[in-house]
């Protein structure tokens, strides 16, 4: 069994990005500038956004954090998005999800200028992804592709089973693994809450990507010998530690890792890759804007 070490690979990527930023600085060019909007006080969301801003600083990007109260109306949020769309200093921005219930998420995501949509959540960018066009691939799926690529995990002709059809992970992952090229050329099965006999399907899988958010859901009996297992779960489970919780994945790691050929740990697998790929998308956004003399 080999660990797919997202912590290490994400550090490699951040170092590569830092070198690119240094070149921009040496040439007196603008450096990438990422903005993040967060609405409300959800602890996990605040932590994630904080990590994104910190990562920007680490690689030499500019960053702006826009904090809005949980009572923010949809109109107020749309106005802020319009401001960021029009702000030439901002190369890319994200609206941290989930949003409070008075706000229509789809309407918000559609208001983001696709050329600044570094999360890749705008329908235009999602469509471009499905059509193999240049786009911003959502950070978590992009991170998984990058792990598969850097570890040389064979995907061609393999049966990939994706568990969960969320717009952020499962759905895009199912599209990306079936695209032409590497990583891709996989035969994909997308499973979800209405799938019958899921273990019968997962035991046929060469690659399992689970993005469910149910701790220890994927048991050893559900995995065939030699399978590649990618765990996207990041559920906070209460414990006795100082923080009061630990992060738990969807995979029963101790037993599944004995059967897997490659496996991502939680924490330290897919999680750190997500932030690195958001930075990569922001660098791409800056390069595209430079081409347009912006
Ligand atoms: N909430 C959970 N994951 C994400 C993400 O990748 N981007 C944003 N904006 N919000 C999220």
Please explain how this structure is put together.
The chain has 294 residues and is α/β, with parallel strands linked by helices. It has two domains: 87 residues, Rossmann fold (3-Layer(aba) Sandwich); 133 residues, NAD(P)-binding Rossmann-like Domain (Rossmann fold). 41% of the residues lie in helices and 16% in strands. It has a six-stranded parallel sheet with strand order 1-11-8-7-5-6. Helix 1 runs parallel beside helix 10, helix 2 packs across helix 10 and helix 6 crosses helix 10. The model has no long low-confidence stretch (mean pLDDT 98). The structure holds guanine. Guanine (GUN) binds next to strand 4 and helix 6. The site of guanine has 8 residues, from strand 4 and helix 6. Belongs to the tetrahydrofolate dehydrogenase/cyclohydrolase family. It comes from Flavobacterium macacae. It holds the Pfam family THF_DHG_CYH_C.
């Amino acid at each position: 069994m080999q660990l797919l070490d997202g912590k290490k690979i994400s550090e490699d990527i951040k170092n590569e990005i830092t070198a690119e930023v240094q070149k921009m600085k040496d040439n007196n060019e603008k450096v990438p500038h990422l903005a993040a909007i967060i609405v409300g006080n959800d602890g996990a969301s605040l932590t994630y956004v904080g990590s994104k801003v910190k990562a920007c600083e680490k690689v030499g990007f500019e960053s702006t954090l826009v904090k809005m109260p949980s009572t923010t109306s949809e109109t107020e949020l749309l106005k802020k998005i319009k401001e960021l769309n029009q702000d030439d200093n901002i190369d890319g921005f994200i609206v941290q999800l989930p949003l409070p219930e008075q706000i229509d998420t789809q309407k918000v995501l559609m208001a983001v200028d696709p050329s600044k949509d570094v999360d890749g959540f705008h329908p235009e960018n999602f469509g471009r992804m499905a059509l193999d066009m240049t786009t911003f691939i959502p950070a978590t799926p992009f991170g998984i592709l990058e792990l598969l690529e850097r570890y040389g995990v064979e995907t061609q002709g393999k049966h990939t089973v994706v568990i969960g059809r969320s717009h952020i992970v499962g759905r895009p992952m199912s599209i990306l693994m079936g695209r032409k090229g590497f990583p891709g050329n996989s035969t994909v099965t997308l499973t979800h809450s209405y799938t019958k006999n899921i273990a019968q399907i997962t035991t046929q899988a060469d690659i399992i990507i689970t993005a469910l958010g149910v701790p220890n859901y994927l048991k050893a009996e559900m995995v065939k010998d030699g399978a590649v297992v990618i765990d996207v779960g990041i559920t906070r489970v209460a414990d006795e530690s100082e923080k009061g919780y630990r992060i738990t994945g969807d995979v029963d790691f101790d037993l599944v890792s004995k059967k897997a050929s490659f496996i991502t740990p939680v924490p330290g697998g897919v999680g750190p890759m997500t932030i690195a790929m958001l930075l990569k998308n922001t660098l791409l956004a800056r390069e595209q804007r430079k081409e347009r003399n912006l």
